[in-house]
Amino acid sequence: MLDDFMKTKTRALREFSSDDILNALGLSRKPTPFDAAIPTALAFVAGVAAGAGVALLLAPKSGREVRQDLSNKASELTGRLTSAASEVVSDVRNALPLGESERRNADPTRTLGGTNRTS
Predict the structure, then answer these.
(1) What is the pTM of this model?
(2) End-to-end alpha-carbon separation of the chain, Å?
(3) Is residue 113 left, alpha or beta, with left meaning phi > 0 and alpha meaning psi from -120 to 50?
(4) 94, 97, 96, 99: which is closest to 112 by C-alpha?
(5) Please, are residues 112 and 95 in contact by the beta-carbon 8 Å criterion?
(6) Band of the pLDDT at 119, cuts 50, 70, 90?
(7) Model confidence pLDDT, tens digit, residues 7-42
(8) 116, β-bridge pairs
Protein backbone atom coordinates (compact mmCIF):
# COMPACT_ATOMS: atom_id res chain seq x y z
CA MET A 1 0.00 0.00 0.00
CA LEU A 2 2.81 2.41 0.84
CA ASP A 3 4.45 1.31 -2.38
CA ASP A 4 1.39 2.27 -4.44
CA PHE A 5 1.16 5.61 -2.65
CA MET A 6 4.82 6.39 -3.41
CA LYS A 7 4.42 5.39 -7.07
CA THR A 8 1.44 7.70 -7.59
CA LYS A 9 3.19 10.63 -5.89
CA THR A 10 6.39 10.01 -7.85
CA ARG A 11 4.41 9.88 -11.09
CA ALA A 12 2.65 13.13 -10.18
CA LEU A 13 5.99 14.82 -9.47
CA ARG A 14 7.41 13.64 -12.79
CA GLU A 15 4.48 15.23 -14.62
CA PHE A 16 5.35 18.63 -13.14
CA SER A 17 7.40 20.77 -15.42
CA SER A 18 9.67 23.61 -14.41
CA ASP A 19 7.03 26.00 -15.79
CA ASP A 20 4.45 24.50 -13.42
CA ILE A 21 6.73 25.12 -10.46
CA LEU A 22 7.48 28.68 -11.62
CA ASN A 23 3.75 29.37 -12.06
CA ALA A 24 3.04 28.03 -8.58
CA LEU A 25 5.58 30.52 -7.23
CA GLY A 26 4.12 33.38 -9.30
CA LEU A 27 7.11 33.53 -11.65
CA SER A 28 7.54 32.99 -15.38
CA ARG A 29 10.36 32.46 -17.85
CA LYS A 30 11.90 35.44 -19.61
CA PRO A 31 11.29 35.17 -23.37
CA THR A 32 14.44 34.76 -25.45
CA PRO A 33 15.14 36.79 -28.60
CA PHE A 34 14.58 33.59 -30.59
CA ASP A 35 11.03 33.38 -29.20
CA ALA A 36 10.27 36.81 -30.68
CA ALA A 37 12.15 36.16 -33.95
CA ILE A 38 10.05 33.20 -35.09
CA PRO A 39 6.71 35.06 -35.34
CA THR A 40 8.47 38.02 -36.95
CA ALA A 41 10.12 35.80 -39.57
CA LEU A 42 6.83 34.04 -40.30
CA ALA A 43 5.07 37.41 -40.70
CA PHE A 44 7.83 38.56 -43.07
CA VAL A 45 7.53 35.42 -45.22
CA ALA A 46 3.75 35.77 -45.31
CA GLY A 47 4.13 39.42 -46.36
CA VAL A 48 6.54 38.51 -49.14
CA ALA A 49 4.18 35.83 -50.42
CA ALA A 50 1.20 38.21 -50.31
CA GLY A 51 3.18 40.92 -52.09
CA ALA A 52 4.29 38.52 -54.81
CA GLY A 53 0.70 37.39 -55.32
CA VAL A 54 -0.57 40.95 -55.59
CA ALA A 55 2.26 41.84 -57.99
CA LEU A 56 1.35 38.92 -60.24
CA LEU A 57 -2.32 39.87 -60.21
CA LEU A 58 -1.71 43.54 -60.96
CA ALA A 59 1.20 43.18 -63.39
CA PRO A 60 0.60 45.22 -66.55
CA LYS A 61 2.38 42.64 -68.77
CA SER A 62 1.96 38.94 -69.29
CA GLY A 63 4.63 36.50 -68.18
CA ARG A 64 5.76 35.99 -71.78
CA GLU A 65 6.28 39.76 -72.22
CA VAL A 66 8.18 40.04 -68.94
CA ARG A 67 10.47 37.15 -69.92
CA GLN A 68 11.08 38.73 -73.33
CA ASP A 69 11.93 42.08 -71.69
CA LEU A 70 14.33 40.35 -69.30
CA SER A 71 15.95 38.51 -72.20
CA ASN A 72 16.37 41.76 -74.14
CA LYS A 73 17.89 43.54 -71.14
CA ALA A 74 20.28 40.62 -70.56
CA SER A 75 21.38 40.69 -74.21
CA GLU A 76 21.89 44.45 -74.03
CA LEU A 77 23.95 44.11 -70.85
CA THR A 78 26.03 41.32 -72.39
CA GLY A 79 26.76 43.53 -75.40
CA ARG A 80 27.80 46.43 -73.17
CA LEU A 81 30.08 44.22 -71.06
CA THR A 82 31.67 42.69 -74.16
CA SER A 83 32.32 46.14 -75.61
CA ALA A 84 33.79 47.41 -72.34
CA ALA A 85 35.97 44.31 -71.99
CA SER A 86 37.36 44.69 -75.51
CA GLU A 87 38.17 48.35 -74.79
CA VAL A 88 40.01 47.38 -71.63
CA VAL A 89 41.98 44.67 -73.47
CA SER A 90 42.88 47.16 -76.18
CA ASP A 91 44.02 49.75 -73.61
CA VAL A 92 46.12 47.17 -71.76
CA ARG A 93 47.76 46.03 -75.00
CA ASN A 94 48.56 49.64 -75.86
CA ALA A 95 50.05 50.24 -72.42
CA LEU A 96 52.38 47.22 -72.52
CA PRO A 97 56.02 47.88 -73.42
CA LEU A 98 56.86 47.34 -77.08
CA GLY A 99 59.03 44.49 -78.27
CA GLU A 100 62.08 45.11 -80.52
CA SER A 101 60.22 44.46 -83.78
CA GLU A 102 57.30 46.63 -82.65
CA ARG A 103 59.65 49.50 -81.73
CA ARG A 104 60.96 49.67 -85.27
CA ASN A 105 57.45 49.92 -86.70
CA ALA A 106 55.94 52.00 -83.88
CA ASP A 107 53.85 55.05 -84.64
CA PRO A 108 55.22 58.01 -82.60
CA THR A 109 51.69 59.40 -82.23
CA ARG A 110 50.34 56.16 -80.69
CA THR A 111 47.72 56.87 -78.05
CA LEU A 112 46.59 55.24 -74.83
CA GLY A 113 42.87 55.35 -74.20
CA GLY A 114 42.33 58.01 -76.85
CA THR A 115 44.83 60.55 -75.48
CA ASN A 116 48.38 61.30 -76.56
CA ARG A 117 51.11 59.73 -74.44
CA THR A 118 53.32 62.78 -74.70
CA SER A 119 54.04 64.53 -71.44
Answers:
(1) 0.34
(2) 110
(3) left
(4) 94
(5) yes
(6) very low
(7) 887 877 777 778 888 888 888 888 888 888 888 999
(8) 111
